[in-house]
Amino acid sequence: MSGVWVFKNGVVRLVENPGPDPVDGSRQGSSNTKRKVLVHTPSNEVITSYGVLERKLSPLGWERYYDDPDLLQFHKRSTIHLISLPKDFNKFKSMHMYDIVVKNRNTFEVRDM
Predict the structure, then answer these.
(1) pTM here?
(2) What's 16's DSSP letter?
(3) How many angstroms separate the Cα of 105 from the Cα of each of 40, 75, 88, 108?
(4) What's the rounded Cα separation, in Å, for the pair 60 and 57?
(5) How far is CA 109 from the centre of its chain?
(6) What is the pLDDT of residues 92-113, one digit of tens each?
(7) Which long-range contacts (CB under 8 A, 24 or more apart) does 107-110 make?
(8) Contact of 74 with 62, CB cutoff 8 Å
(9) pLDDT by residue (tens digit) across 24-69?
């Protein structure tokens, strides 16, 4: 995992391959930045939708949690862990992928596309 941990507005997040920050604080995407994908390692399947992800998480004991209408959330009864994801799969970023990996060791990994 490479990048820089950034603390902004009370939230810490990992910024991968950070470039120089422009004066206005916006970031321009680099065309040579590799896209990350979440892979279910037992099947070597790339997670391409939340439906696929839910089918992989369910046998591991994760259940949908409907507390927040703006998020897709999964809770594992035997733990205090909660996976919170944006409703729109297009906003599914590497920080969400790494959260899933940390909470499901040896089952998922993040790879460069």
Answers:
(1) 0.70
(2) S
(3) 11, 16, 25, 7
(4) 5
(5) 10
(6) 999 999 999 999 989 999 999 8
(7) 107/40, 107/41, 107/42, 107/56, 107/60, 108/38, 108/39, 108/40, 108/41, 108/47, 108/56, 109/38, 109/39, 109/41, 110/36, 110/37, 110/38, 110/39
(8) yes
(9) 444 445 555 678 999 999 999 999 999 999 999 999 999 998 888 8
